[in-house]
Amino acid sequence: MLSAELIIYGLIFVGVLILVEGVYLVAFGRSISLNRRVNRRLEMLDKNVNREEVLAKLRKEMDQHLESRGIPLYSLLADRAQKAAIAFTPNQLMMMMVGVSVLAFLALTMGTEATLPVRIVLGIGMGVGGVFMWVSSKAKKRLALIEEQLPDAVELMVRSLRVGHPFSSAIAVVSREIKDPLATEFGIISDESTYGRDIGESLKHMAERLDMQDLRFLAVAVSIQQQSGGNLAEILEGLAKVIRARFRLFRRVKAITAEAQWSGKFLSGFPVAVLLVIQVTDPHYYDEVLDHPWFIPACFVVAIFLIANLLVMRMLVNIKV
Questions:
Q1: DSSP 88
Q2: What is the Cα 289 distance to its own chain's centre?
Q3: Most C-beta atoms within 10 A of its C-beta, which of 89, 160, 233, 305?
Q4: How many C-beta neighbours within 10 Å does residue 10 have?
Q5: Is 260 contained in some domain?
Q6: pLDDT on residue 1
Q7: CB within 8 A of 204, min separation 6: which ones?
Q8: Measured between alpha carbons, how far is 215 from 222 in angstroms, rounded to an integer?
């Protein structure tokens, strides 16, 4: 029955997401988790005393997806994988897509009576879509944590500068005292500074890689101070206030638009939920119109309107702060 197959499809897709997360945690352990007190860089330094090797490995992980944008189809995933700092290499991610697609196809073969072309298309869609959703979720969570941590990090740098530490030492203090993911990011900048790279350039590279406006403000402030001089502590103190005010405003806008966001999701999801309820309660409800020439076109029209509703509602509530 259609209703049973829909449930199986959903379970298989959820299983794909759980499988990808499980493989990632098994491959890299708890050290890859976000927002940990002992950050990943310090754990790697504790296990491997060679600071240069740790820096090279972390830089490779964070830049490898940016360098692989030219790979066909992978460019759709590269930007999100870069922001999420996925430790899998691009080749490993693509192998993961292939592997979970094959497993999804086998699960569809054993659990459903769908035809071979349908199973192939659904298997590929679940494998690629599952990995894409998993990477997107990781990127969204990581960027949200960095945005939340950044004002505290800047204020910590201000306090370090005011007690007489140079800016490079202030960066190192931030990398030790705050949690991941920002701790590892600043730890890389600190190590690069030790090996001779300009801190302003490192901050600019991090801002562009994460595509975050607040980090661009920080990079520009540091670069201007390096070129023209001035009290960096006062500059960063003002920047911290601006970032914190923008963050509060963003949260306020998010709270105000929450009702509209959920309204859009409800209006788009309600027809699908009604369809599932009809299929569960009366599987033969549409049997009399299945052969009508307008049935399939009408289904496509409804799907297009649902997608358009999602896009329009998202545009209406996507307010830039």
A1: S
A2: 43
A3: 160
A4: 11
A5: yes
A6: 40
A7: 216, 219, 223
A8: 11
DSSP 290: T
Round to whole Å and give the CA distance between 139 and 80.
6
**pLDDT at site 194:** 80
CA distance 54 to 223: 27
Residue 321 within any structural domain of the chain: yes
* Angle, CA of 145, 149 and 151, to the nearest 5°: 140
Both 215 and 264 in a single domain? no
Distances (CA, A) of 85 to 14, 57, 297, 311: 23, 12, 42, 28
The fraction of the chain above a pLDDT of 90, given in percent, is 0
DSSP assignment of 28-92: H-GGGSSS-SS-HHHHHHHH---HHHHHHHHHHHHHHHHHTTTSTTTHHHHHHHHHHT-SS-HHH
Residue 28 one-letter amino acid: F
Query: What does the DSSP assignment read for 117-154?
Result: HHHHHHHHHHHHHHHHHHHHHHHHHHHHHHHHHHHHHH
Domain boundary among 228, 244, 260: 244
Q: For the chain, which ranges sit under pLDDT 50?
A: 1-2
Query: How far apart are alpha carbons 110 and 105 in whole angstroms?
Result: 9
Short-list 320, 321, 307, 315, CA closest to 261: 315
> In terms of domains, do 176 and 228 share one?
yes
Domain that holds residue 262: 245-321
Nearest C-alpha neighbor of 169 from the set 146, 148, 189:
189
Q: Specify the pLDDT at position 27.
A: 63
| CATH code at position 205 | 1.20.81
> What pLDDT, on the 0 to 100 scale, is given for residue 49?
63
Residue 191 lies in a domain: yes
Same domain, 222 and 282: no
Tokens representing residue 225 in the block: 């101070």
Confidence at residue 35, expressed as pLDDT on a 0 to 100 scale = 53
- In a domain, residue 142? The reply is no
pTM of the model: 0.72
The count of domains in the chain is 2
- Please check whether residues 232 and 180 belong to one and the same domain: yes
